[in-house]
Amino acid sequence: MDISVINNDAFRMINNLGKEFQFINFPMIIIAEYTVIFLAIFVILNWFTKKQENKIMVICASVAFILAEIIGKLAGLMHFNHQPFAVLSNTNQLIEKAIDNSFPSDHTILFFSFCMSFWLFKKGRRFLWILTAMLVGVSRIWVGVHYPLDVLVGAFIGIVSAVLVYLTVPRLTLITTFITKYESLEKIITSKFHKV
Q1: How far is the CA of 13 from the CAs of 20, 65, 70, 148, 168, in angstroms?
Q2: Which residues form the Phosphatidic acid phosphatase type 2/haloperoxidase domain (predicted)?
Q3: Is the Cα torsion angle 139, 145, 149, 152 positive or negative in sign?
Q4: pLDDT per residue over 35-46, tens digit each?
Q5: Residues with Cβ within 8 Å of residue 8, at least 6 apart in sequence
Q6: Do residues 161 and 68 make contact, with C-beta atoms less than 8 angstroms apart?
Q7: How far is CA 40 from CA 36, 43, 70, 74, 184, in A?
Q8: Which of 45, 90, 144, 183 is deepest in the core (most CB within 10 A)?
């Protein structure tokens, strides 16, 4: 069977759930649009903790995202498709989105890059990170702005990038040197701020 047919059918199956279970639409809109705010808050809070491991985790997640975005843009040059709402009739579109190349999903790349990095570093309740990334991916289909293949490829790119960065970047002396110098600078600024 043609992959585009499977992709369209899978999209319809998930997206049509919004018509059947309308009470879930609002939570899905929140997840699809605003979970990024909570991700940003978590990143900032972890950066300003006193644990060096948390700073390394944030650096790794950020580098993984940059790497994944570059790979995603290259993948987008090799394959192009508009968002489902721009192509398919009767799409349950729940959020506004400009029409462009939806392959792969940038939101999914972002969340899997960061959440997979957190999963690799954090020992407790690690499944919550992957669950969060998966929910964001599904929500992007639910609200009508991405196909399942956009999300699956975005997730794959994000996961691979996070693992590659996790296996290499923490071993670089440049990272620990940067963090040590940053923490020294932070102490100087903090001490001057307290004196004022």
Answers
A1: 11, 30, 31, 10, 40
A2: 54-166
A3: negative
A4: 999 999 999 998
A5: 88, 147
A6: yes
A7: 6, 5, 20, 25, 24
A8: 144
